[in-house]
Amino acid sequence: MARARVLIRPKEGILDPQGKAVERALPALGFEGVEHVRVGRMVELDAEDPERLSELCEKLLANPLIEDYEIQTL
Amino acid sequence: MIWGVLQFPGSCDERDALHACSLLGEARLIWHEERDLGGADAVVVPGGFSYGDYLRAGAIARFSPAMEAVAEFAAAGGPVLGICNGFQVLCEAGLLPGALLRNEDLRFTCRQVELQVGHLNLPEETQVSALPGGTLSIPAKHGEGRYWAPEEMLDELEANGQVAYRYAPGHNPNGSARDIAGVRNKAGNVVGLMPHPEHAVDPLTGSTDGLRIFEAVAAAGAPA
């Protein structure tokens, strides 16, 4: 079994209202100078065949039309 | 005419959809584990939160046996209507173009909206644009209803007449691209929209315009 981590984020250019909301909340808490906040998902898994991970991402974990994904094998 | 209404764990609008369909014919529920659509002439994928909306709205429901059957049914020209979560399921399944994203203001929206009707391949007498004012009054209630597709895909949809429903000016509740509330596939037999026609079929709830949408689906599907 190979441990892997999949990072999924909204594609560049797609409005991410969650990221915007976080970004707007930060100055009120005293965190100035933070920008371009994007909120995505992280999926951890153990895979017998890590070669098939990108297929799995394309078909289920990410929607390739709106999301980019990145596979990190650990 | 027999209508089949899918039911997933987490569906919540299948009873209203069943009621709406029963006004136009016979209506049956189809449990998500069924591989057989029971001879349905038209299929409704209803609203709700199928499989808890885990991962992405509609992402898991598309792998259900019933959805495999719906994909085959749609490929053969059978009429399919996806409402709200059902629209999300059809997009995830690749039966409709585009995707539904979190509402622009992050708020769950629940309000009556006015819809303009696009070209629906309908016989002249049922063209909805012939209605007074040319709009339909239908409730919308969703948190992830912002229609999105790449610009070139949007241009293509407009050119092909695939924009089935558009929010009237000032009625876009979620930031959808080009005010798109619903789209259809190229063949015209698969239609999805975010607002809920099944909640607008009885004068008791203020509008019966929703029935026009069910009628349009029945008329647009070319029988296999």
List descriptors.
heterodimer, A: 74 residues, alpha+beta, Mth169, Chain: A, 3-stranded antiparallel beta sheet, B: 224 residues, Rossmann fold, two-stranded antiparallel ribbon, 5 helices, 21% helix, 25% strand, globular
Description of the molecule:
- The complex is a heterodimer of chains A (74) and B (224).
- Chain A has a 3-stranded antiparallel sheet with strand order 2-1-3, with helices on one face.
- The radius of gyration of chain A is 15 Å and the shape is elongated.
- Chain A has one domain (2-73): Mth169, Chain: A (2-Layer Sandwich), CATH 3.30.1280.10.
- The relative contact order of chain A is 0.38.
- Chain A is built from 2 helices and 3 strands.
- Chain A has helices spanning 17-25, 53-61; strands at 2-10, 41-47, 67-73.
- By secondary structure, chain A is α+β, with helices and mostly antiparallel strands.
- Chain B is of the alpha/beta class.
- Chain B has one domain (2-220): Rossmann fold (3-Layer(aba) Sandwich), CATH 3.40.50.
- Chain B has helices spanning 14-22, 65-75, 85-92, 151-159, 210-220, and strands at 2-7, 26-31, 42-45, 80-83, 99-101, 109-117, 135-142, 146-148, 163-167, 180-184, 190-193.
- In chain B, the strands form 2 sheets. In chain B, strands 2-1-3-4-11-10-9-6-7 form a 9-stranded mixed sheet, sandwiched between helices. A two-stranded antiparallel ribbon of chain B has the order 5-8.
- In chain B, α2 links the parallel β3 and β4.
- The A-B interface holds A 10, 14-15, 17-18, 21, 41, 60-61, 63, 65-66 and B 55-56, 59-60, 63, 92, 98-99, 101-106, 148-150, 175.
Mean pLDDT of chain B: 91
Could you spell the SSE succession of chain A in H and E letters? EHEHE
The N- to C-terminal Cα distance of chain B equals 14 Å
Question: How many structural units, i.e. domains of chain A?
Answer: 1
Strand-pairing-aware structural class of chain B: alpha/beta
Judged by helices, strands and strand pairing, the structural class of chain A is: alpha+beta
Poorly predicted parts of chain B: 121-130
Mean pLDDT of chain A: 94
Question: What is the level 1 CATH name of chain B?
Answer: Alpha Beta
Describe the global form of chain B.
Answer: globular
H/I helix tally of chain B: 5
The share of residues in helices of chain A is 10-25%
